[in-house]
Design goal:
Largest sheet: 7 strands, mixed
CATH architecture of the largest domain: 3-Layer(bba) Sandwich
Structural class: alpha/beta
Radius of gyration: 23 Å
Oligomer: single chain
Low-confidence stretches: none
Helix content: 25-40%
Number of helices: 15
Mean pLDDT: 91
Shape: globular
CATH class of the largest domain: Alpha Beta
CATH topology of the largest domain: FAD/NAD(P)-binding domain
Number of domains: 3
Strand content: 15-25%
Bound molecules: flavin-adenine dinucleotide
CATH superfamily of the largest domain: FAD/NAD(P)-binding domain
Length: 469
């Protein structure tokens, strides 16, 4: 058994909170330091004028039954199941997401012919000279042909990440496209097999009240009940080290400087933020790796509508490239409790990088732009926007899996392993494009590895080819 009995957790998102809860349960002295005024990180919820809203759509689900049961305990009865509806809106029509073969039949006869013709050509080409899975574009074209790639996959991905698909790693396709190929799509539509290798989540958990942030508040409640401390509004600025030990964490709260130390530090801060906080001893290759990693932020534009509902969907993807908004979601379809009676709210997402044209655009202009985008698609009549809207900007929303990210992440993780009393985990701490359940599993894995001295490896969670849909 290790002798350490105190831990400082940097970041109060789901990874940090879930780890902290396990340590408090085991009797450790736990302090969580969170920059924002509330816990939850990317899975936070907010309330305004009778509306409850999240940072984009959040469906809660794990492939592990034990984790789903754990979520129900943390939510303390405040949960319900939802039957998922998410679609693609393109060329004036809704298409299923994930795609079904019948969707291809919704296209014009010429596009249907081209889709199947391209697919056959690419399969023959691949049989003669195998197309490498060396980037997102090749991965999709090899499995679906160029026409479907351009229509359904390429345009959306290019628009959302703002870089050409030849510069995006095939890892992303592996984890985010449920279908194996056009042929797989046809088979699944015609024969509806029982045991499909990559199923997507059809039913998920969602809090009855309070939005997805209720999960993080549940963790905070459990941590505090067991004697742990959660400090919000406290921003970690730097860490001191001696040899292989982190000796102090310095943070700022309400303009005052504070320091804390503990036997163990669990960091869920972005890797690119944590490493520079270690000061001058950081080796050059780690500094270069930090510079090589890219994050995307999101501008969330919330539109309050004077109607019961806009679409029945939980979320809708909008691939058309001339439209800035790439996805909309409607929280009243997750829980009717998210808006006053007779009203709804649409969250329109625009991926953006801190400082770019959407990031710096005035809020009123963003609201106008989102409303005009949805009006152009004939999804919304701007006259329904009686109650207006507001905007939130979130940095570090997505780690970008480009062609070099793996090497950079490896360099940083290897450097951080030189500290014997610090672990970096979570979506940000591993630069891992995972879901909420993955972050919780990472938090639990870190705690179990230390508390039970087990070999469980948090770095392997959400690292493989499994589908995350
Ligand atoms: C738009 C969107 C939609 C999503 N939809 C889904 C979904 O449907 N289903 C699903 O399962 N997952 C979804 N996810 C993913 C999910 O939200 C995340 O994987 C999960 O919430 C990440 O938790 P985390 O604790 O690992 O990281 P984070 O939530 O990023 O937590 C890191 C924490 O560190 C804090 N922090 C940062 N810097 C400092 C500092 N200097 N000092 C102190 N604190 C600091 C941050 O404020 C944050 O609270 C979605 C994500 C996004 C962006």
């Amino acid at each position: 058994m290790p002798t350490s009995r105190s831990v400082i957790v940097l970041g109060g998102g789901l990874a940090g909170l879930s780890a902290a809860q396990k340590f408090t349960e085991a009797g450790w002295t736990v302090t969580v330091i969170e920059e924002r005024s509330e816990v939850g990180g990317l899975a936070s919820s907010y309330e305004s004028d009778g509306y409850t809203y999240d940072l984009g759509p959040h469906r809660l689900y794990s492939n592990l039954d034990s984790l789903n049961e754990h979520f129900k305990v943390v939510l303390d009865g405040n949960w319900d199941y939802r039957d998922r509806l998410s679609r693609i809106f393109m060329k004036g029509a809704f298409f299923d997401y994930p795609l079904k073969a019948s969707n291809v039949l919704q296209l014009s006869p010429w596009l249907i012919f081209r889709s199947f013709f391209d697919y056959i050509v690419v399969r023959i080409r691949n049989a003669i000279t195998p197309i490498p899975d060396d980037n997102f574009e090749n991965w999709v074209i090899k499995r679906f042909g160029r026409t479907l790639y351009e229509l359904f996959f390429g345009t959306y991905t290019r628009k959302a990440w703002g870089i050409p698909c030849t510069q995006i790693s095939a890892d992303w396709a592996n984890q985010r496209i449920s279908l194996l190929s056009l042929w797989d799509t046809v088979k699944k539509t015609l024969f509806k097999p029982k045991n499909v290798p990559r199923t997507y989540v059809t039913r998920f958990l969602y809090p009855k009240t309070g939005g997805i942030g209720a999960l993080s508040l549940g963790y905070q409640r459990l941590i505090e009940q067991e004697g742990g401390t959660v400090i919000c509004g406290a921003s970690v600025r730097s860490l001191d080290s001696e040899g292989s030990q982190i000796t102090a964490v310095h943070y700022e709260k309400d303009g005052a400087q504070h320091s804390a130390s503990a036997d163990l530090v669990v960091s869920t801060l972005p890797l690119t933020m944590l490493v520079p906080m270690l000061g001058e001893r950081v080796p050059v290759e780690a500094t270069e790796a930090v510079q090589g990693l890219i994050h995307k932020g999101i501008v969330f534009v919330y539109l309050m509508l004077d109607r019961e509902t806009l679409t029945p969907d939980h979320w809708v993807y909008i691939p058309e490239e001339h439209i800035a908004v790439h996805r909309i979601s409607e929280f009243t379809n997750f829980s009717r409790d998210c808006a006053p009676p007779g009203k709804t709210m649409v969250c329109a997402e625009i991926t953006s990088t801190n400082g770019d044209k959407y990031w710096t655009m005035e809020d009123d202009d963003l609201i106008k732009l989102a409303a005009e985008n949805l009006a152009e698609l004939k999804l919304l009549d701007p006259s329904e926007l009686k109650d207006g809207g507001f905007v939130r900007r979130v940095d570090y929303a997505y780690p970008i899996y480009d062609l070099t990210y793996r090497g950079h992440v490896r360099t940083l993780i290897e450097y951080l392993r030189t500290f014997s009393n610090m672990v970096s985990t979570g979506r940000q701490g591993l630069f891992r494009y995972g879901n909420m359940d993955h972050s919780v599993a990472m938090g639990h894995a870190v705690a179990r590895r230390i508390l039970e001295d087990s070999a469980i490896d948090h770095e392997q969670i959400a690292a493989g080819d499994e589908y995350f849909g």
